[in-house]
Amino acid sequence: MNITRQHQYSLATEGYIVLPGIVPQALCSDVVKLIMSFTGADQTKPDSWYKKDLGHNGIVPIHQHQAIWDIRQHPSIHQAFAKLLATEKLWVRLDRLSFKPPQRQPEAFDKSNIHLDFPYQKITSLRLQGILYLTDTEESQGAFCCVPELFKQPEVLKQKKDLWFSDEELEGYEIKNVAATAGSLIIWDSRLPHSGNINTSDQPRLAQYISMCPEDSEESRASRIALWQARRAPEKWRNMPYQQDPEDGEVAKLTELGQKLLGLTRW
Ligand SMILES: O=C(O)CCC(=O)C(=O)O
Fold it and tell me: Which of 51, 59, 88, 253 could form a disulfide with 40 if both were Cys (CB 3.0 to 4.6 A apart)?
């Protein structure tokens, strides 16, 4: 994956970039099948999309399946994060999936839930998050959305006492819905106010959250390996609705790159 100066500039100024078609269709399709099987949904039968109540972002709590790992260990994703974070010595976060069908009562959910995941003042070095669209995603299809004009105002963001943005705080700012094709990765700076928007289209949104960070402590390495080996969710998410413990399936097979991204072997 060729990360250009333009990508780096856009990330620094707008707070996010889109890397179109970075993951092959076949790998995306395997995760789509996994989501369908877990939720009991059939892509062609809208009535089947609502069997499980997965909340605002449609969180599908699977973390250790082979299909998810096959995307995590796809080299182009590591290449992108390595260039942006200026080190190849990265670990992949053990993140999950999203299945967000059209909102049945959009009028009851008029907030876009714009937020930060971490207090602005505590983000002292570049921290990246990411979402991979598994199918083509329109702006109205519950797309990732964000507020680049607020990202450009650190003095406003520094004043914030909590993580959520009220209608008043968002007044006058454009909320940008990011459409992209299947296999496209959106990477954003954690200081960018963002959310997943309401799905007002007639198709579900399917996505895999994926991001990388510089390798960390021995303690955290050991706990990551244990989670992979026992097929478990990270502890902070273990009480999510529908979480299996351990998760179904075999221990995922890791490539040489996958082993480094887990921490099983060292960079
Ligand atoms: O699902 C999305 O599009 C956004 C995810 C989000 O808000 C988050 O990861 O904090």
Answer: 51
